[in-house]
Design goal:
Elements (H helix, E strand, L loop, with lengths): L6 H28 L17 E7 L14 H4 L26 E4 L4 E4 L12 E8 L5 H10 L9 H9 L9 E4 L23 E3 L21 H22 L3 H24 L6 H6 L8 H16 L3 E6 L11 H22 L6 E6 L3 E2 L11 E2 L3 E6 L7 E3 L1 E2 L6 E3 L2 E2 H11 L9 E3 L2 E3 L15
Parallel strand pairs: 1-7, 1-8, 4-12, 4-15, 5-6, 5-7
Antiparallel strand pairs: 2-3, 4-11, 8-11, 9-10, 13-14, 16-17
Length: 462
């Protein structure tokens, strides 16, 4: 310490220097982070059974008792009162309504499937039925957010964002997470958003609900006015400014996200159009998915794109049959809905199998909840988060297997129950991620997809 200067004076004069040292450290970390690729493929916490996932989202809530959860007791009680009170918050009616469709056993596993899904029924020996599903949220908005983000109302990262944050992706020319024709309602972009995770992990939307899949595109991807060389020069200048800004402010995931998203968008100009263009597929493949046929063309295109993205190395692919399964007054509409998706789903399973992709691709089918076994309106069914069915295929799960059950009326999950948190934990485990270790520090605490809940259902693993 120089003579004549007190300790207090010395600290006062040097205070700004301490701040500079801290800033310099943060700037060094930020500069180092810019040099890394946040989408680079990374190993998980343990050996993975699945490399990627395709989620077939049946938005609106398919009726389990009319599709995959056969309940002969409903026919016995047709028109009679349910022998126990309906769940709080649902329709006040207690009048039982049987399924309007016949069920029969299929495959060596003898799984019961209704006549709504004759094509999917051919693959029951590849499916793992989860018949004891239950969740929270009586309304669509709550349940859809719970399904996609693990939270009913709060803004949280979507499951796809968590997966790519944990594992990166296998193809650096493509996003790690794509969602094909996603819904605009019941959470909208939150269902594929990044929330507080770095922006690079948000899902990339290809079209939106209501847009024909034949016209589904990533917005603002192509530039008809400039050549790729001109765009590269423009982007280099812009990125120099962005990186300079980042160095000045220190760590800022928003700026880092912009830098990475601009680079990825540039690379995607060459790769994405090839994957969404189905003209190079054989006529046999197009027929397999029902493309060119009026009821199945739209969803068939989505499913075929999903296979192409999976084959190209995208980590998480979602396909949405958007808000068509909400039949409060006319459950017969399920027949039209199933006709649109049944053949494409079967085509996807067949195509993945013959390409040897099903073994390490996890296919997940389901809606945000099920429907009640009692009637609503003339012949409809109300929402039922208390008990419903989902199924998985490939990716390390047992095939030709059924786990869990609802009561004899198909109302409540009663045996080997799986909450949505449990399903999230289980899917992450199949992908090689420990749901308790996959965390991100935000606002002073470590967050995770399953919050403080979730158990891995190892009984369904092959």
């Amino acid at each position: 310490m120089p003579p004549g200067i007190s300790r207090r004076q010395m600290l006062k004069a040097a205070a700004a220097g301490f701040g500079y040292l801290a800033w310099a450290g943060l700037a060094a970390e930020a500069a180092q982070a810019v040099g890394k690729n946040p989408l680079a493929a990374r190993p998980g916490h343990h050996p993975a059974r699945a490399k990627r996932i395709i989620f077939l989202f049946m938005h609106g809530g398919p009726s389990q008792v009319d599709t995959f959860d056969y309940k002969p007791k409903l026919a016995e009680y047709d028109g009679k009162e349910l022998p126990f009170p309906p769940a709080e918050g649902t329709t006040v009616t207690r009048t039982v309504m049987p399924s309007l469709w016949k069920f029969r056993k299929h495959g060596e596993s003898g799984a019961w499937v209704s006549e709504l899904f004759p094509e999917t029924a051919k693959f029951v020996d590849d499916l793992c039925f989860l018949k004891g599903m239950h969740t929270e949220g009586q309304s669509h908005g709550q349940a859809v957010l719970q399904l996609h983000t693990g939270a009913q109302a709060l803004t949280r990262p979507s499951m796809g964002a968590w997966v790519v944050y944990g594992l990166g992706t296998e193809n650096q020319e493509l996003p790690g997470f794509v969602t094909i024709c996603p819904t605009r309602g019941h959470g909208g972009a939150q269902n594929y958003g990044n929330a507080f995770l770095p922006a690079i992990y948000q899902g990339t939307a290809i079209g939106y609900a209501g847009t024909p899949a034949s016209n589904a595109r990533i917005q603002n991807l192509a530039n008809a006015s400039w050549t790729l060389e001109q765009q590269r020069q423009q982007l280099d200048l812009l990125q120099t400014l962005n990186r300079g800004h980042l160095e000045r402010v220190g760590t800022d995931d928003r700026i880092e996200g912009v830098i990475e998203s601009f680079e990825l968008a540039f690379r995607m100009q060459a790769s994405v159009p090839k994957l969404t263009d189905l003209s190079n597929e054989t006529q046999e493949t197009l027929r397999l998915y029902g493309i060119g046929e009026k009821p199945t063309d739209d969803f068939g295109r989505q499913c075929l794109m999903a296979r192409r993205f999976a084959e190209a190395g995208v980590r998480f692919i979602q396909v949405s049959h958007s808000f068509k399964w909400d039949q409060h007054g006319n459950i017969r509409q399920h027949e039209k809905n199933a006709l649109e998706v049944d053949k494409p789903i079967a085509g996807l399973l067949a195509d993945l199998k013959r390409r040897d992709l099903l073994k390490d691709t996890l296919v997940w089918w389901g809606g945000e909840f099920g429907r009640t076994p009692v009637v609503q309106g003339k012949d409809g069914r109300d929402h039922n988060p208390q008990g419903f069915t989902m199924w998985l295929a490939g990716g390390g799960v047992k095939s030709g297997f059924s786990y869990g059950s609802t009561d004899e009326f198909g109302y409540y999950a009663v045996h080997e129950k799986i909450h949505m948190y449990d399903l999230h934990a289980t899917i992450l485990h199949l992908l090689g991620l420990d749901h308790e270790k996959l965390t991100y520090r935000f606002a002073g605490r470590d967050f995770r997809l399953t919050d403080v809940h979730g158990r891995v259902v190892k009984d369904i693993f092959a």
